[in-house]
Design brief:
This protein is mostly beta strands. The chain has eleven helices and 60 strands. The strands form 13 sheets. Strands 49, 50, 51, 52, 53, 54, 55, 56, 57, 58, 59 and 60 form a twelve-stranded antiparallel beta sheet that branches. Strands 1-11-10-13-7-3-4 form a seven-stranded antiparallel beta sheet, with no helix packed on it. Helix 1 runs parallel beside helix 2 and helix 4 packs parallel to helix 5. The longest helix has 15 residues. The chain is globular, with a radius of gyration of 32 Å. 52% of the residues are buried.
Length: 993
């Protein structure tokens, strides 16, 4: 290959591109000719190698790493996949050569022909008929080349696209993601007149002021003009026109002209995430004779973004940012995502209460921004810059200055007309240097209508001014740190966390605590959860041995892979070095199945909340939206009684304006619930018993009509209030049940149990436990291998058995006492006490673990549900009666770990197909888990295909259970959710059903 530049394009940071056209915001997709499909393909060992005569086939767009076994996906987080310092790269450098024939439409004669390559990783070299036409170097923005001189209308030509995997640019694309190689977005051709719209820039404020700046190129001496039309409002007014000014672009003489259109649009509907109103804008370029030379169409929104003091305002309102970070990802195609994929991502976000997305850590396909405009999501648009492993040395390395500025500027030039984009981001985890200041200066000058953010700029001092960030956007700051800053009197900017609540495995603890502070603390304005999706790649297995990536779309469902497949993570493709399962840190599984934490977020972000005043017996509905009333919603009551079961009855939502509140009538069906005799009744509702089992009222809120992101009837939230606490005496009467059977060591013998209840202090470590250090501490203490040593077994005259045992650990002995009492109703009362020495200051749990008889395959419980919950992640479930197969209670996080727990369970049953089984009633709301797996088996497995489910259930009943936190990357759980030493007491009854 021969190039005009003497340097090798994959090894020189000074060469960011060659012959690549300037970026613009004119949508050329309509009328383009797609070149997507199956191409000839060769994978070469290095860019200097010559292709041979034998060709394979490959999809375009596509990642060769997903289909060619010679170069498989490689996952790293901070570290680079090779040891070379910037700008050096390995000599062994996989290079894909893609080739196909194409024809230029005959009707394009006399027109300008452009080749568009949506994205390629990481260096793109384009040739036509063996002659180079251009180079592009960044993996997540399009490269366009004017190929008019290289093709003949009606002629047939050979297009070769060579993609070099590693380059000097790889050092600034060091993101937490799989490394791939290939052409990852669509390839196409389009044509324009020789007189064409080079760019269209729209500024549309929420007050209706519209300005459209047009840049025109071509032979302008024959005269030209532009006109514009806004859908529903008619023609725009042309303010100014500038005659041609001669500019030299390479060897082609071109002319440049500028024009401005404007209008004041009355009665405009502002664009927001809640109400994403769009208007069609058409701009036409006319030749001197009035004929149309070029047309641009786009949907625009009238929206204003500004920072006022400590607040980020959208259309003048302070809006809480409930965001999530998103990568381009698909478990079958790697980095290649389609319009349906992107739509499904954003629809899922909307349905679970997210109103913002950060394009971590590169510009996404323009289709995603089109969808964000349409569906209503605020976007932090992030440049493709991350130099994590070599951040400090690159931030001020002048060789990389052009790349930093070009990547930020090209992103802004492309995306500036999208109302969804409310913030420009200069990149991620690249230290802070002169390059960031330069890039910030460019984008602020070019687009003063949006703020700029960059986490590294304010990393050392959140109160700094005059830096390359208008927003303080820390990552994984603790709740104490951000609230202290907001209350310090030194805050100068909005604080919106660019990353928080790391969703790795069983995680997202304390999310409710965070939002309680964010919603009540001026200066705190939300953040972006890390991240949206687990990056597990579907992998084939044969005889238990892993193979390459799989392409079978039917090989997974509901987050679970079929036999013969598994979710692969770092290291599973032989990739070294790697960062293991750290890529599995999403709020949804690789197939987009929501994890339980999604329901927690949905409830915290709910547009409707419910409160109850027990003194007056009145309930109130609160509208938490900024723009919409409640007319788009419907509701029904779920009455959940501990004794009486569930009942669903109609509800009538009151008319509540944005930010307002109004009383809501309680269901008339409440009096139909039985009242225990002799009780005076509930305050405000004398017909209800004041004592007995709990009674909860849940407002199930759904969409009334079809939304762009949800059909009618989609559940939006389930706010709940408690009408009555459980006030029945505990423990219940215990006399007259006969003898209790135990073995000589005091272990309970029961016909429905295959393993008796013993003390549990350990859980299969979560990813947070492992990376946060708790798991190592528990292992050092010996909590994962407790040995019960009986001390005494005594019986009293009423048949009550007291068994005392000790559990030695490396830092002291735990004393465990169990008192078993047979009751007259056939149940067995178990009263337990465990005393932990002070050295056991932070254990996983304190409680009982037992195993049931086989065949008890269905669980019904009274408590929050139906999804999994834990003490610091339990705001997302309605308290009612729930029922599920035992096999569905377990959550299949990519690396097996503690999961399937239910927080606040009051009682539960486990039954078989004939309805028989056992029933357990707890002395207080407790953490309970019922799964097919022992903790030791979970901890020993790296993937779920290594697990063999038991034919019985493993049951944990915990007096105390440690919170989840997010310590895999970020703060651990808060002190109230730690399990302290000292004496713990709990009791429960079990009886046959």
């Amino acid at each position: 290959m021969t190039f005009s530049s003497p340097v090798r394009p994959w090894a020189s940071p000074e060469l960011t591109s060659w012959q690549r056209l300037p970026m613009h915001a004119v949508d050329r997709r309509p009328g383009s000719v797609s070149l997507d499909g199956t191409w000839r393909f060769q994978l070469l060992p290095a860019p200097d190698a010559e292709p041979g005569p034998q060709w394979d086939e490959a999809p375009v767009p596509g990642c060769w790493t997903m289909h060619d076994p010679r170069d498989l996906p490689h996952y790293t987080n901070v570290q680079m996949p090779f040891p070379h310092h910037p700008p050096l790269v390995p000599e062994a450098n996989p290079t894909g050569v893609y080739e196909r024939e194409f024809e230029v439409p005959a009707q394009w004669a006399g027109r300008r022909t452009v080749l568009h390559v949506g994205a390629a990783e990481s260096v793109l070299i384009a040739e036509i008929d063996g002659a180079p036409v251009g180079i592009g170097k960044d993996s997540h923005l399009a490269s366009e080349f004017d190929i008019t001189a290289a093709v003949r209308p009606g002629g047939r030509h050979t297009l070769r696209l060579t993609v070099v995997k590693w380059s000097d640019a790889s050092h600034i694309e060091d993101q937490d993601q799989w490394w791939h190689g290939g052409i990852t977005r669509s390839v196409s051709l389009h044509a324009t007149d020789v007189l064409y719209l080079d760019d269209v820039a729209v500024r549309a404020g929420h007050d209706g002021e519209l300005r459209v700046d047009c840049r025109v190129r071509g032979p302008l001496d024959g005269g030209w003009s532009v006109s514009g039309e806004l859908e529903g409002y008619g023609e725009l007014v042309q303010d100014t026109a500038h005659d041609a000014s001669n500019r030299e672009l390479g060897r082609v003489s071109a002319f440049l002209g500028e024009a401005r259109l404007s209008a004041i649009v009355s009665g405009v509907r502002p664009w927001s995430a809640e109400s994403p109103s769009l208007y069609g804008l058409t701009v036409r370029l006319h030749r001197g004779d009035g004929s149309v030379a070029d047309t641009s169409y786009q949907r625009i929104g009238f929206r204003t973004v500004e920072i006022r003091g400590r607040d980020l305002l959208v259309n003048g309102d302070r809006v809480l940012i409930r965001g999530v970070n998103r990568h381009d990802f698909h478990p079958l195609t790697g980095r290649v995502v389609t319009e349906p994929d992107m739509r499904a991502d954003l629809v899922t976000m909307k349905r679970f209460g997210f109103n913002a997305v950060r394009t971590s850590h590169y510009p996404n396909d323009p289709v995603l921004l089109d969808l964000a405009d349409e569906l209503g999501l605020y976007v932090v648009d992030e440049a493709d810059i991350e130099s994590h492993d070599h951040a400090h040395e690159i931030a001020d390395d002048p060789r990389y200055l052009p790349a930093f500025v070009e990547r930020v500027s090209r992103m802004a030039l492309r995306d500036k007309n999208h109302p969804s984009v409310i913030v420009w981001s200069l990149g991620n985890e690249s230290d802070y240097g002169a390059h960031h200041d330069a890039a910030a200066a460019w984008v602020r000058r070019h687009d003063p209508t949006r703020p700029v953010q960059y986490e590294g700029a304010a990393k050392t001092d959140w109160s700094s001014t005059g830096i390359a960030s208008d927003i303080v956007c820390p990552m994984y700051a603790s709740l104490g740190e951000i609230t202290a800053h907001a209350r310090s009197g030194e805050q100068t900017k909005p604080l919106i966390l660019c990353e928080y609540s790391h969703a790795m495995g069983n995680s997202n603890g304390t999310l409710a605590d965070h939002w309680a502070e964010i919603e009540t603390t001026p200066g705190l304005q939300g953040g972006f959860i890390w991240e949206f999706r687990d990056h597990g790649i579907l992998q084939r297995t044969a005889d238990g041995r892993p193979a390459g990536p799989a392409t079978a779309p039917g090989a997974y469902a509901n987050g679970i892979t079929a036999p013969g497949y598994r979710w692969a993570y770092g290291g599973d493709f032989g990739d070294t070095p790697n960062d293991g399962v750290f890529c599995a840190d999403g709020m949804v599984f690789p197939d987009r199945t929501p994890k339980p934490a999604m329901y927690e977020h949905r409830e915290l972000a709910a547009p409707v909340r419910l409160s109850y005043d027990p003194a007056s017996g009145t309930a109130t509905v609160h509208n938490r939206q900024y723009v919409r009333d409640l007319a788009w919603l419907r509701a029904e009551w779920l009455i959940g009684g501990e004794e009486s079961g569930n009942r669903t009855v109609p509800a009538e939502l009151p008319d509540v304006p944005p930010g307002g509140s109004a009383p809501i009538a309680l269901p008339a069906e409440l009096p139909e619930f039985p009242r225990l005799p002799g009780h005076p009744g509930l305050p405000g509702h004398p017909e209800l018993p004041a004592e007995g089992g709990e009674l909860w009222l849940t407002l199930r809120v759904t969409t009334a009509d079809d939304q762009s992101w949800a059909p009618a009837g989609t559940e939006i939230c389930t706010p709940s209030v408690r009408l009555r606490e459980r006030t029945a005496a505990w423990p219940p009467p215990a006399a007259g049940g006969g003898a209790v059977e135990t073995d000589a060591d005091g272990l309970l013998v029961h016909p429905l149990l295959t393993a008796p209840p013993v003390l549990g202090l350990w859980r299969a470590p979560t990813d947070n436990d492992l990376l946060g250090g708790a798991a190592a501490r528990w292992r050092d203490w010996g909590l994962d291998a407790l040995v019960r040593k009986p001390v005494s077994v005594t019986r009293d005259g009423e048949g009550r058995v007291t068994a005392v045992a000790e559990y030695p650990t490396a830092v002291g002995t735990v004393v465990h006492e169990q008192v078993f009492t047979a009751r007259a109703d056939g149940s067995l009362l178990v009263e337990e006490t465990a005393t932990l020495p002070e050295a056991l200051h932070d254990v996983a749990r304190v409680g009982s673990v037992l195993e049931t008889a086989a065949g008890l395959d269905t669980m019904e419980w009274y408590g929050p549900g139906p999804w999994e919950s834990y003490p610091d992640r339990c705001a997302g479930g309605a308290v009612a009666r729930h029922r599920a197969p035992v096999d569905e209670l377990f959550t299949p996080y990519l690396r097996p770990q503690e999961s399937g727990g239910r927080s606040g369970v009051r009682s539960f049953t486990l039954t078989g197909a004939d309805g028989s089984g056992l029933a357990v009633r707890l002395d207080a709301p407790r953490q309970v888990s019922v799964t097919r797996h022992r903790a030791a088996d979970l901890a020993a497995a790296a993937h779920h295909d290594e697990l063999t489910p038991l034919d019985r259930s493993v049951v944990h009943i915990d007096a105390a259970h440690r919170g989840l936190g997010t310590a895999s990357c970020g703060p651990d759980t808060l002190p109230p959710y730690l399990v302290a030493p000292g004496t713990h007491r709990w009791s429960w009854t079990v009886r046959p059903v």
